[in-house]
Amino acid sequence: MDRHNPGKIYIMLGANGVAFLAEEDMMGFYGEFIDSVTQQHPDAIVYVQSILPVTAEKSEDERYSNDRIDQYNISLMNLCKEKGVYYLNVAEAFKDELGNLPTEASPKDGMHFGSTYYMKWFDYLKCHAVATEN
Question: What global pTM score does this model have?
């Protein structure tokens, strides 16, 4: 690890964790991971990205519901404040007017998407960064 000295670290764990981990457990694991990263790289800017929404159809499964994802994201945002790292609400770049991932973004499984949406993600990250002195 001494050879690696990243200036920025982006962390994102997905909606699968929402489906299979209780909110308290997931935040506990997330907190431990953030602590580990910040201890190993104390000079890096750490960004934690929100959990992305799923399509309306996928959201019908209560384990993956967008309401549940939104609640986990609130907890994640609070955890980031507690840990002193940056929270990025990437989900806002993916939600349609009803708060769902558009169906055309993920017609197969309601969660995973193709290059068009990866570009939206990349554009969001480029526009939501902490200004640093050079």
Answer: 0.91
